[in-house]
Design goal:
Blueprint: H1 11-25, E1 30-36, H2 42-52, E2 57-62, H3 73-79, H4 91-103, H5 111-125, E3 131-136, H6 143-153, E4 161-168, E5 196-198, H7 204-214, H8 221-231, H9 235-243, H10 247-251, H11 264-270, H12 279-290, H13 296-303, H14 314-318, E6 322-325, E7 328-331, H15 334-343, H16 346-359, H17 366-375, H18 382-399, H19 401-414, H20 418-434, H21 438-448, H22 455-469, H23 475-489, H24 494-511, H25 514-524, H26 534-550, H27 554-567, H28 574-586, H29 590-607, H30 613-622, H31 630-646, H32 650-666, H33 670-687, H34 690-706, H35 710-722, H36 730-735, H37 737-747, H38 750-767, H39 770-783, H40 786-803, H41 807-823, H42 827-844, H43 847-859, H44 877-887, H45 892-899, H46 903-917, H47 922-929
Helix pairs in contact: 1-2, 3-6, 4-5, 5-6, 7-8, 7-9, 8-9, 12-13, 12-15, 13-16, 16-17, 17-18, 17-19, 18-19, 19-20, 20-21, 20-22, 21-22, 22-23, 23-24, 23-25, 24-25, 24-26, 25-26, 26-27, 26-28, 27-28, 28-29, 28-30, 29-30, 30-31, 30-32, 31-32, 32-33, 32-34, 33-34, 34-35, 35-37, 37-38, 37-39, ...
Length: 930
Amino acid sequence: MSPGVRLRGRDSERRILADVLDDARSAHGASILLSGGPGRGKTALVEHARAAAEDFTVLHAAGVSTEADIPLAGLQRLLRPVEGQAERLAESRRDLIRDTLTRGVLSDPDRFALYTAVLDLLRLASEDKPLLICVDDADHLDSASLEALAFVARRLSGLHIAAVFTAHAGHGKSAARLPASEDEPAPDELVPGVTEHLLQPLSSRSVHDIITDRAPVTPASAVRTRLVKAAHGNPAVAIGHLRGLSAPQIRGLEPLPAQLRLPGRLRASFLTAYRELPEHVQHLLLIASLAADPGVDLLIEASGDPALTVGDLEPAEEAGIVHVEGANVVFSDPLLCEAIAQDAPANRLRAVHRALAEAVDPEYTPLEFSRHAAAGSSTPDEALSNAVEKAALRARRLEGPLAASYAHERAAQLTPDPDIRACRLASASYQAYAGGRTDRGAHLVRKARPLAVTDRRRAIIDLVDAQLTMREGNAIDAAERLMAVGRELIGHDRELALRALVRSADSASLAGDPIRHGKAYDLAASLVRDDDPAPMRLVMAYLKGCTLSFRGDYTGSTPILREGMELSEGMDLPSELIWAGVCGLRLGDAPFVRRVMTRAVEAGETQGEHAPVPAALGFLVFSEFWSGRFPSAAGHALHGLKAAREHGQSIWATQNLASLAMIAAIQGDVDTCRIRARAVAAQAGEKSLGLASALASWALAVLELSRGNAAEAFFRLRALVHAGPGYGHPTMRLLTAPHFVEAATRMGETDWARTSQAGYQYWADAVGSLSARALAARGQGLLAAGDEAADHFENALALHRACGDDDVEQARTQLLFGAFLRRARLPGRAREHLYDALESFERFGARLWVRQTRAELRAIGTAERDPDPPSTSELTAQQQQIARLVAEGATNREVAAHMFISPRTVEHHLRGIFRKLNIRSRVDLARLLN
């Protein structure tokens, strides 16, 4: 292990080694055998033990296969550093050791005497300081040496000696020969009497960390994800794959190889047992390694030898390479399967692929058929390419867009005509994009572009390319480019032109650019007819309604946006559901938005259409901010952030990060909110993301309001009024109006407050949203005085109660009303509303608003209702979220999965939660919060 490189994912093994060394220090002597497959990290653990044994004398020897037949060769290498201690042995023992290790000959009568002499020699060597014996690859040690060291290892009690052995899983045979769990005894002990510990594959998190540690440049999220998956928990494989990539590939600027090849020496280690099998068994295993679902019947059919049976696999089962489960052949290690396929010559691979293409059914396994058909052919073949293209269309229905992408690419590989090949590559690129593989889509579209012959084909390729970049590049540039593509496609394909223009409008909306959004609508307005399919009419309702809303015509936009919502009923494509959800957002219909965006996320993940998922999650969180669903909102935002990074969508990563800033603001997590908002500002400025930038500014304003700093909130929100595309957003200016009115009235800036209130009131009346009308009534209350103000506040609370879906804003209205009543010297009425607000804020974990509410209660000379129990306001936002999930009955593992952290991190936070709340158990936590 390189100096300074952390040993990842082996905490239990490190504890075992620490215990072994501690036993040696205290004269209790101990030994351990670490076993595992190639690349699992056995040697790294030995190096770790040596580094931890600074106060030890270390003896080290590694088994060498070329010396395995030379008796005592390993023992001689191990004992050379302590040969001088032999002078202190009795003469007979000294002469026996020297004579035996020099000649390498040991008669049976002398074995016990030699072994005890070796034990005595090691005891003498450990007198001055403890002794660590490290034997790496013990399964390659000569048997005489291994027997002597096993004898010693069983007799370490009372000595300052530790012994650490490592061996291949199965001791040179196969991983399957070892127990599936450490609770079962090893079937074939290599070092009898020594505890054996089997190294399991590393967790994905640990492999992720190894890649981060070892990468020469920061890996792109999608690249890291693929490397983690390809490693199958094997650290050496992860490092080997990483070393085989260039810096641009690691950064995600160039595509990764279609197949990540195992390092040569590691592949040879996996294949040791395989190469000892009979030829016909090796052939069956090669077929199995290339088949996606290697059933026994498929293997026999593809082998071309009907005389073969499942019994012919027995040698491979005995070697532990595979086992037969029902009708399927299962490899003991997926990396062994890859090693077999990568080791075969090209001609033999093509022959096996051709045999499998004939054996599989393209109707039921279209992707498998396309893979074998393409890999089995060495030249273009029009008939075969058409068959594979047909399979690609079926693969889209059965297995999702990414499977279709691979099948389309294979059809293109077999296609003789360049223009048709370009068409199929473009289809492959688009399906890769839909499946969340933007990097793959970009690679394929670059291959397609020089092949296109017709203007229509070139325009389609431009559309695919533009859609690939719209979630990663500058939003204004993407809007312009997609508009140009849409204009070009109008004369060729009405439906594709509409798709390009609605994507242009989407990009313009992300930028906060109503002018470009309106231009995209104007170009699209004539493309949709009354008799067109519902999805096209939904797109037009979405485009027209959003354009009118951008222009401030809320009365005109409302029925059109409602039409878009209604048209989505029965649809299941994520993009269509997202457009309908945005219609709902513009009408302030949060319940509808939650329903439809949840459907979009579920549809995307079920259908394998991952590209729209980060956007759906981003809009879903919008509907959860003010309802008090913070665990859900934070979980969805974190999910969206992770998915966006994995699928190369920096724009939606920024948007979801802005949502997390808002959640932190509402919960009063000052530092977290500011850190996230700063990150959003930097990323949004580079990509002209007016929506994300405005949301981050709104979050900071909400934070300042909750801290009682109305001036800072006012100036932040006022800046949004004049912010242009890339820095602000017209809709966000509208949605922030209730907070702007509050900040402005506190500052005495009533003209600003009345102007903002008028615009919001017009929108709320037009859309009819109960929540929006409640906030409008609250704004009127802030601007009025006396009984008129009280009436507006009462009206606002009645509308909040009727809505039932804006708990945070309802609590804020209660706080503002209570403060108004306190100033009006009506403490009895004020107390009622402030108590209700306090209860809500404590339930949400909105610590700064809790502080404001308590201050108002103190100002009217009122203590809290009960003695203050341990307050969750002392917890961080993340701890509050964990506490609520645990109180609801979630396990550590479920909490970890929900929040995208490790169970160990959850356990760490729980200890802090228990300490801060002065409780002892999860039951106490549930009682406190529920």
